[in-house]
Design brief:
By secondary structure, the chain is α/β, with parallel strands linked by helices. The chain is built from 15 helices and twelve strands.
Length: 369
């Protein structure tokens, strides 16, 4: 597997890779991962023999985040060293490798350059939606990069549609899953008490604190609802807007900023919440936090864009336009109608078990055959 990032970076892709490796180990796969090690990420790195992780020392994960809106610079920053490390690895281990699995476009470029040299089966997973209809040049570039792959795995039907419309015919849809032993319903009152949120109607956000995630919209809603003594907003995550969230949380008593939380501990936060809100302004690939919250029995309010509508239905949440008034109205609707909220909550776990279990790994494994 080739990926620009891996644990201990925390995010949807990195958590998915952990889950995928866990499933593949159960089926006796031998896994190697080529990735970067960003020097300022001080979290403890747990090493093991399977997967065997080869980490390229690299600088500034924060710079990586800043370059994301500028694709040419982003690729120049990431591709060369990842390609060199992957090439050296393949020269040494080519007889041990049956499949090259790339994650994201950067890794796809690397795998594309390796496939002819080593004649291996190649698979790529795409974890976002690129808006190719509005970006014809990018559409042509992506088609050229991905067309030789044996299988392109798209995270949502929406993603598959844009790739097929761009001219690709080797695309299949896979779906994230979550560890449902880790993300499971707990005693809500005890979880609230543990986080200092006892007696509060908790609105939770989990994710990167960047503008396209709708952070400023949620802060605006918190300001507008500050007169409701029991409605409380909790933010979990880090990013460029961390300082703004921290500052506002000091000014408003109805906001708590918890900072970065290890994935292992997130279940307590989901269970303490009455609602998870995903107010994204851009097209999410699927929204892993939605799956985690539903598995914990917590309903979701989410923007009706990208792959998010594929993760929810009216039995477990509400889809709305990504506007402050629409999201606020949905929050107040469930705040005022606790019977409706209880019905949604009761449906969540069974819905998650039906749609987001480890069975979803089967399609990925089949793509290796």
């Amino acid at each position: 597997m080739i990926s620009p990032s891996f644990s201990p970076i925390s995010g949807g892709l990195e958590t998915h890779l952990n889950d995928l490796c866990e499933c593949l180990r159960k089926h006796d796969y031998r896994i190697y991962i080529i990735t970067y090690r960003y020097l300022e990420k001080r979290a403890k790195i747990i090493s093991g023999s399977n997967p065997k992780v080869y980490r390229i020392p690299w600088f500034s994960y924060n710079l990586l985040l800043k370059l994301e809106p500028y694709p040419p610079l982003y690729f120049v920053y990431l591709v060369p060293m990842l390609l060199l490390a992957s090439l050296l690895f393949m020269l040494k281990h080519k007889h041990e490798v049956d499949v090259i699995h790339a994650h994201g476009l950067v890794a796809a470029v690397v795998a594309r350059l390796l496939m002819k040299a080593f004649n291996k089966k190649t698979v790529v997973s795409l974890h976002t939606i690129y808006g190719l209809r509005q970006r014809p040049i990018l559409s042509k570039i992506i088609t050229r990069i991905l067309s030789p792959f044996d299988t392109v795995l798209a995270l949502s039907v929406r993603s598959r549609e844009e790739l097929v419309n761009a001219g690709l015919n080797n695309v299949k849809v896979f779906t994230y899953w979550v560890n449902q032993k880790k993300f499971t319903p707990l005693n809500k009152a005890l979880c609230k008490r543990k986080l200092g949120l006892e007696g509060k109607f908790v609105i939770l956000f989990v994710g990167r604190l960047i503008e396209v995630k709708g952070i400023k919209i949620l802060l605006r809603i918190a300001r507008e609802l500050r007169d409701y003594n029991d409605i409380h907003f909790a933010f979990v995550g880090t990013g460029p807007l961390s300082e703004e969230v921290r500052k506002v949380s000091k000014d408003l008593e109805n906001i708590t900023y918890f900072g970065e939380v290890e994935n292992e501990n997130l279940s307590v936060y989901y269970n303490a919440a009455d609602l998870l809100v995903v107010p994204s302004l851009h097209e999410e690939g699927f929204g892993r936090v939605v799956l985690e919250a539903l598995s914990c029995g917590t309903p979701v309010i989410a923007s009706n864009i990208g792959g998010l509508p594929e993760a929810l239905d009216p039995s477990v949440g509400i889809l709305v336009d990504s506007r402050a008034d629409a999201i606020k109205d949905a929050i107040l609707k469930l705040y005022n109608d606790r019977g409706k909220l209880e019905v949604l909550s009761k449906n969540c776990r069974a819905y998650a078990e039906r749609r987001f279990s480890e069975r979803n790994a089967k399609l990925i494994e089949e793509s290796y055959s």
